[in-house]
What we know:
The structure holds two protein chains of two kinds. By secondary structure, chain A is mainly α.
Amino acid sequence: MISRKKWLFALLFYVFCTFIVVLWMIPFLVAIFTAFKTIDEIFMLRNFWAPPRTWTFENFKVAWKEGKMGRYFINTLWVTSISVSGTLFLSSLAAFALSWYDFKMKKPILMMFVAGMLIPFQMLLIPVYKFSVMTGLYDTLTGVILFHIAFQLGFCTFFLRNFMITIPSSLFDAARIDGAGAFTIYAKIIMPLMKPAMAALAILEFTWIWNDYLWSLILLQSDVKKTVTIGLTAFQGQWISSWNIIAAGSLLVASVPVVVFLVFQRYFIRGLTFGGIKG
Amino acid sequence: MKKITPYLFLIGPLAMYIVWVLFPIFHTVIVSFTRWDGMTKMRFVGLQNYVQLFRDRYFLLSFINNLKWMVGFVLLSIPLGLLFALLMDQRFPGHRVYKTLVYLPMALSFVVIGQIWSWILEPTGGVVNTFLRWIGLSNFAKSWLSDPKVVTYSLIWAALWRQIPYAMVLFLAGLQNVNRDRVEAAMVDGANALQRFWYVVLPELRPAMVVAVTVNVIDSLRAFDIVYVMTRGGPFYSSSVMANYMYIQAFHNYRMGYGAAISVIQFLVTLIFILIYVLNVMKKEEREV
């Protein structure tokens, strides 16, 4: 009897968990169905539940070519890769100083980085916009990249430092006694040990910066410089209710971070749980 | 020589941080005391913007909507995130795939989330209304995004699709630290599942709970993308939040001073929770030293 009760319980448990997962997948299903429909089906049926009667790949082609998603992809890849490398490099320098040295401003500087990562973006919009216009960085990808590098320093420094302080200080001291300079210790001894932490951080930062909307909205203007998220909102104006093309565009925008997430899920989750913060 | 070494490492990152983050914070505070269109000369007006804010019904509406976001996030994403975490922590066969699928919305941009949810909430063929009609509850079918009475809740609902998995991640990490021996000991002592959860597991989840609540509150106070993409704060500001109202005032209406004042209020409210978070970090720091 007991085993039967247990069996029933396990079944109920599975049904409930499956229900949750299915519920969570509905929005994806809706997006996929819509993206593969022809425009006739969109207008005739007006039912987002219905799978396409004839599956068409045409919408993706239109989004990529006429919607200029291809162009936006290149811009976003450029912004994202340079921003991630830049912020990882600079924050590893800062984290190194904040882990291995004792100096008066150490704690205030660290806390400043931690507090800065939580600030509402609206607090920075006006000055960053004005500064970009003044320096000629407005409407350039470089302007967006520099902002991302600077702002992400808060989280990245905090993150990397917490990993660095777990490295035994004997390693650091031994190298110093051998006469190694500070930069040599950073580059040859500490950084090789930081590879897993850097990987987790790179994955997180990649998805955050790829998905950024507000800063591209504020700092970019011309069509050729748009990033994917801004490009996608422009679809709404161009194809108003051609939802199939907008859906195809959405899936294209989502594809890159989703693939990165699926491949590097462990890193992503480890990064997220560490600080409990997202951008 | 040794004394300046850490500063040599810090000079690059600090310089960038000062230019793009620290200085702007102070600058925004100064701008909030002025009347400024962003181009002509700033004019100092003292507290006038702030006085005006508290008479501006659209600002007050945005503020109240932010409170709704806060309550929605804390009351829904915390318990549901915890529930999901407890379920997925059972390590049943296939739990990895289940987890991955629930996590997936976290990889998406709010622009994509907003777009997808506008189809779910679409009045004629949208997923929600079609479902309601199908089960015979057509009275409950609504224009989810254009009815001022429900629009904010619709937006919160869409945001929760990404927020709940996030809370779940935090609780799953917290559950790893729960002492399994104590749970088993309680089981031997005859405590049922609910008692074990309430008296043994939940107290040990306290640190995860503090982080999850603080982060959810901070996220609720800085909601912007999803509101701006789905409704622009409309209709008639009924779904506006502070972040979105600030953007409209500063960048559509060129009222930089007024916009800055809105962001200062938003910042001050958030600051309470930022401080809780930072103090928490500092306590951890002290324990490690």
